[in-house]
Amino acid sequence: MQSIDDKVIAKIKKAKRGSLFFTEDFLIYGSAKAVAKVLERLEEKNDLTRVARGIYARLEIHPIIGILTPSTENIAKAIAKRDKARIIPTGILALNALGLSTQVPMNVVYLTDGAARKIDLGKRKILFKKTAPKNLAAIGKISSLVIQALKVIGKDNIEETEKQIILKHLSKEEPYRLEHDIRLAPEWIRVIMRQAIKASSNE
In this predicted structure, what is the pLDDT of residue 63? Predict the structure, then answer.
């Protein structure tokens, strides 16, 4: 019979480098205490890296850069997938994703319909803020980011250059997603989104 160690190692080695694991992924092989001990041993041998409490990674190795740590975005997505929750970037993270800010936030914030929580990644942190389902109803990846980014900028603070960047992004959104998501935005944001819809229909 395979030991718990062998089963855990086999599962990890089957996964591609860069994959994230949660302690509960291995509970089919043994108790939480036994699994924790196995993961601890693998960490000591550098076969696995502890990213945060209960979260581990089989690190990717770039031929030039070397070891690549998982991005906060990938960690957030993995947690959302595990929890079967929806998430959407907000704040500086949304601005950064659209090229409206060069600031790289140390604390990234996501709205979620899952549990509110803070994931400590050492110098970095991921904050999940509980929100109403309607705030997660957008179906367009670009349009949902735009809505969040514009809320951060504010109605009276948006500059023409920022508006043009946003319109350029929205031109890449699928029209039916844009038509759906415009209904979820405040009126002043709808004005900008309508311009994008009008531009795409004229092409």
Answer: 80
Question: What is the number of other CB atoms lying within 10 angstroms of the CB of residue 71?
Answer: 12
Q: What is the topology classification, in CATH, of domain 4-62?
A: Arc Repressor Mutant, subunit A (1.10.10)
Q: What are phi and psi of 154, to 5 degrees?
A: 95, 145
Cβ neighbours for 199, distance < 8 A, ≥ 6 positions apart:
167, 171
- Cα(198)–Cα(194) distance, rounded to whole angstroms? 6
- Residues 6 or more apart from 179 whose CB is under 8 A from it? 197
> The tokens of 107 are what?
């604390």
Render pLDDT for 11-51 as a digit per residue (tens, 0 to 9). Answer: 998 988 889 999 999 999 999 999 999 999 999 988 899 99
Q: How far apart are CA 93 and CA 101, in angstroms?
A: 9
- Burial, 30: exposed, middle or buried (Cβ in 10 Å; 0-12, 13-18, 19+)? middle
Residues 6 or more apart in contact with residue 53 via CB below 8 angstroms: 120
pTM for the model: 0.83
